[in-house]
Amino acid sequence: MDVILIPGLWLDGASWDAVLPALRDAGHRPHPVTLPGMESRSADRSAIGLRDHVDAVVALIDSLDGSPAVVGHSGGGAVAHAAVDARPGRVSHAVYVDCWPVGDGDAINTGLPADGADLPLPDWSFFDDEDLVDLDDELRARFRARAVPSPARVASDPQRLTDERRLDVPVTIVACEFPSGSLREWMAAGEPRLRELSRIRQVAYTDLPTGHWPQFTRPAELGRAIAGALPDWS
């Protein structure tokens, strides 16, 4: 199966490199995406918004035969969900890595500090302890060395969804920072950020205990978790 891998903020397609072997071993064809404005630190991000990232993924879906799966990490989950909304009849499965579908009108994160049109990787002190589990000093240094500022509007633009057939596309949540049981408890309690997830008709959960960046801290396990979530056909 073709598997489109959408990185979160500050990351390009190469951030999935250590995840790819497990997917290929399972017989899948991974397509890691470098989204617009993430090609280099010097790229012009001033005119790039969330929809530009969504449109890039939709164009990739359209270029592939069959019914690919989409995988979104962190903020890339919003992009994945909007791509499902744009092509609900083409996407076979959506996997959200330490994130969940962002609903219509919501944004990825309006609280991140911007520098003009750029959204640089904040100091580690900005993040919660749960984010940083297993991200040791070496991994933090490697992450910061490769980080590219994201377009600021990608994090603050409101999500736009129009096709309720998106709710029929099966979803798997790979829960890292918090166990899947907690997510289900919060959803049952009416947590607003999980309202869109509560509407999806078929949801499975896989627990992968680590911090917010499992592609760095537990990449092989993440690859196997994604592969295990996908339909058993190619």
TrEMBL record:
One MF annotation (Gene Ontology) recorded for this entry: hydrolase activity
Keywords, comma-separated and alphabetical: Hydrolase
Top-rank lineage group of the source organism: Bacteria
SUPFAM superfamilies noted in UniProt: alpha/beta-Hydrolases
InterPro entries assigned: AB_hydrolase_1, AB_hydrolase_fold, Sec-Metab_Biosynth_Hydrolase
Positions of the AB hydrolase-1 domain: 3-222
UniProt KW Hydrolase keyword: yes
Keyword Cell cycle found: no
Position of the signal peptide: none
PANTHER family, sorted: AB HYDROLASE-1 DOMAIN-CONTAINING PROTEIN-RELATED, ESTERASE_LIPASE_THIOESTERASE DOMAIN-CONTAINING PROTEIN
Protein name listed in UniProt: Alpha/beta hydrolase
Naturally occurring in which organism (per UniProt): Amycolatopsis suaedae
